[in-house]
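Field log, afternoon session.

UNIT: design team B
ACTIVITY: writing a sequence onto a fixed backbone
BACKBONE:
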């Protein structure tokens, strides 16, 4: 009798343990480990004796004059940055006393993605101070036990989604081709990315393109966690209301819903100081100072901006919009200055920054032309065929641009216009 009771208690305990392990993973959303943030004060830096000797290491014109001692984090981390620091500085990391990574620039209040490290060092043209803010998004901050637990939960989650026979994209995406906030870990119980307050709304007169200055070598599976880590840093280190961007895109072409409040409303973000209430934004996950964005990411940016600006009533994106500067230390224009700029621009057109990087900035004019071409393609469906009627949002634009029937109608219309113009000239 005693053995039977012991066996029953052990069985119930095992069932309870299994339920505790599996419960967070039994969802059609991809399993995302809890985000953990921690800080360390930045020690007093020392002045580099001969700063010019390091100039060859600074490809982007920000020569370091001060360097901090190495800082050991309390736990392993995936992203790191100096909290609330908007100026240009550089960070390098290492793991378990190994080799230091290359120096990577932190800019515009966005952390550096490092994919696992436990030590960091900072250098800058100014004397850096404040707090180093670390973010762990991989579930490894608690050591081997937590790493094992999260690995098991990820496996259970993957099997659950497969057994449910529900494609993740269909289960998650309220709008085609855009991953909602809940899918990358925001707006769920216990998330570190819950906004501090309700969204504010302004107007959309232009779209601003960014890059996040993360390494370009992340995997498709890591990308959602990077977005979550950036959001956690923007809220908990910078003190912002939410993630700074309205939308983001990874190098595989996946679009992410950014700041809460929806993509169709003119939600005020933190993308361009002094112009936030007049613009919308999309940020590419990557460093594009020297490396161009992938074709998949470029196509997604074009698709998003065509849909978003048309939603705002801006059908001609090659024209200019009038923007009024609200000022600020990171703003290129003094408060009250009225500027006329194209409706698709890089962050550096408005702010004192290198963002979106030289390689991506060079592509902005071409992106602008492609967005305009896509919007014009969508305009052919003023009387859409059945195929185009079934499409919605950004897919409507693509469907209309690719629809052979709509193209034939547009071509016939252009030919009729040419013939009419020729006849009119002959009559004169």
């Amino acid at each position: 009798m005693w053995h039977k009771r012991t066996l029953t208690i052990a069985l119930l305990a095992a069932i309870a343990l299994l339920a505790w392990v599996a419960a967070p993973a039994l969802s059609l959303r991809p399993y995302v480990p809890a985000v953990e943030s921690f800080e360390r004060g930045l020690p007093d830096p020392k002045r580099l004796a001969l700063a010019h000797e390091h100039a060859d290491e600074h490809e982007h014109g920000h020569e370091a004059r001060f360097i901090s001692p190495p800082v050991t984090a309390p736990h392993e981390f995936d992203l790191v940055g100096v909290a609330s620091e908007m100026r240009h500085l550089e960070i390098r990391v290492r793991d378990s006393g190994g080799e230091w990574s290359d120096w990577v620039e932190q800019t515009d209040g966005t952390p550096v993605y490092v994919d696992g490290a436990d030590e960091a060092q900072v250098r800058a043209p100014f004397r850096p101070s404040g707090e180093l803010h670390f973010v762990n998004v991989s579930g490894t901050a608690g050591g081997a036990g937590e790493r094992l637990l999260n690995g098991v939960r990820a496996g259970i989650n993957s099997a659950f989604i497969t057994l449910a026979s529900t494609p993740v994209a269909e289960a998650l995406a309220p709008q085609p081709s855009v991953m909602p906030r809940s899918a990358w870990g925001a707006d769920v119980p216990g998330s570190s990315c819950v906004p501090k307050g309700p969204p504010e709304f302004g107007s959309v007169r232009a779209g601003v393109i960014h890059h996040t200055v993360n390494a370009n070598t992340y995997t498709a599976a890591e990308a959602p966690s990077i977005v979550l880590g950036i959001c956690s840093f923007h809220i908990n280190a910078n003190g912002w209301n939410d993630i700074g961007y309205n939308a983001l895109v990874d190098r595989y072409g996946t679009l992410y819903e950014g700041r809460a409040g929806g993509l169709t409303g003119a939600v005020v973000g933190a993308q361009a100081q002094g112009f936030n209430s007049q613009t919308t934004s999309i940020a590419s996950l990557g460093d594009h100072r020297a490396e161009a964005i992938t074709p998949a990411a470029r196509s997604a940016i074009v698709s998003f901006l065509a849909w978003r600006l048309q939603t705002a009533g801006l059908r001609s994106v090659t024209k200019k919009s009038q923007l009024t500067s609200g000022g600020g230390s990171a703003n290129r224009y003094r408060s009250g200055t009225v500027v006329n700029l194209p409706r698709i621009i890089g962050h550096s057109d408005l702010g004192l920054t290198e963002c979106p990087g030289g390689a991506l900035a060079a592509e902005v004019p071409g992106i602008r032309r492609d967005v305009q071409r896509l919007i014009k393609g969508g305009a052919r469906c003023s009387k859409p065929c059945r195929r185009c009627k079934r499409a919605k949002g950004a897919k409507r634009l693509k469907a209309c641009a690719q629809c052979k029937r709509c193209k034939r109608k547009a071509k016939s219309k252009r030919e009729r216009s040419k013939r009419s113009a020729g006849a009119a000239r002959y009559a004169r």
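LOG NOTE: Residues 2-33+143-164 form one domain.
NEXT ACTIVITY: expression trials, pending approval
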